[in-house]
Amino acid sequence: MKNWFFTLSLGALMGVAGSAQAVNWWDIGNLKTSPAQTLKESRELFKQQHPDLPFDKYALGAYAFSPELYSQYQEAMQFNPGDLTLSTGKELWEKPFKNGKTYASCYPNGGKGVAAHYPMYDNKTHQVETIATSINACRVANGEEPLKYGSADMIALQTYLTSLSNGMPVAVKVEGPGATKAFQEGKAYYFMKRGQLGFSCASCHMAYDGKYLRDQIISPLQGETAHFPTYRAAWSAVNTLQKRIQGCNKNVGAQPQPLESTDYRNVEYFMAYLSNGIKINVPGYRP
User: Fold this and answer.
1) Domain with CATH 1.10.760.10 in the chain
2) How far apart are the first and last CA of the chain?
3) Candidates 248, 250, 256, 257; catalytic one
4) In this structure, how many other beta carbons lie within 10 angstroms of the beta carbon of residue 120?
5) Under CATH, which number does the domain 82-163 receive?
6) Which of 125, 196, 258, 260 has CA 20 to 30 A from 190's CA?
7) Can you name the CATH fold of 3-79+177-280?
8) CA-CA distance, 261 to 149, in Å (whole number)?
9) Which residues form the active site (predicted)?
10) Which residues of the chain have pLDDT under 70?
11) 248 is a catalytic site residue
12) For 132-152, what is each residue's pLDDT tens digit?
């Protein structure tokens, strides 16, 4: 468990609560509110909290709140170590299956632009499908064994497929009762307090975003999904949003779930929808 969580003083927590009342961040977790209304309220929340921050800058995450960190980010992106994973993903993507087909055969336009619409709700399977589950579905459809979620090959393929939407805005849809139910379950997960510290995802990324917790600026929910998979210096590797969620669970003393669990897919769906309009830039780079 990260020690910096323990450095958050009672006074800081009280400040979060006061800020929450002012901008009503907790009300956004109301499960009776429609996805469209939730998105509207979320946009209003971040605009109130950061009135001088242009919408497109949310793609930078925590870097948007520090010129010094942004300068470091620009330098890092010139030689992003994550590009090695991207290159590996391209090689895997283009390598034919035993039947002669490639991953591109499974996606419209060979995969270009499709990641902007993921995660998506599948009315046939009645569940949220992510880039990772779509890759394994493609493999199975072509007579190949599914890859282990979180494996090096899976992460490389997720990175490359998502990169085919670079520069495009996130455009996730929530339409129909099944999709709405999955979205609301993802919202409930995001706002649920858990672990020994009693934190929710929203406690940090909606109530405390843009502020320091010890030596780290907390990134806002808005735009969070647009740079994953991302290279993190703390990992010395590229990894996925769900891997980051696992890490957050551990940080607050909660039991992490397996990658691509129903809860993780639903919360990723919720997060991506609230990042609609933010342009994708993968692989990203984070501390």
Assistant:
1) 3-79+177-280, 82-163
2) 17
3) 248
4) 19
5) 1.10.760.10
6) 125
7) Cytochrome Bc1 Complex; Chain D, domain 2 (1.10.760)
8) 10
9) 248
10) 1-23
11) yes
12) 999 999 999 999 999 999 999
Q: Strand locations in 7-151, DSSP E?
A: 120-122, 127-129
Both tokens assigned to 1? 């468990």
Q: Are 88 and 156 in contact (CB under 8 A)?
A: yes
**How far apart are alpha carbons 102 and 287 in whole angstroms?**
34
SS3 114: helix
Residues 6+ apart with CB under 8 A from 50: 210, 220
Residue 172 near residue 165, CB atoms below 8 Å: no
The DSSP-derived string for 74-130 is: HHHHHT-THHHHHHHHHHHHHS--TTS--GGGGSGGGGTTGGGG-SEEETTTTEEE-
pLDDT (tens digit per residue) in 86-99:
999 999 999 999 99
Q: How many residues does the chain have?
A: 287
pLDDT of residue 22: 57
**Binding site membership for substrate: which residues?**
244
Enter the pTM of the model. 0.91
Q: Give the distance from CA 257 to its chain's centroid.
A: 16
3-state secondary structure of 238: strand
Give the three-state DSSP class for 1.
coil
What number of other Cβ atoms are within 10 A of residue 61's Cβ?
Answer: 27
Residue 122 DSSP class: E
List of residues 6+ apart from 16 with CB closer than 8 A: 203, 207, 208
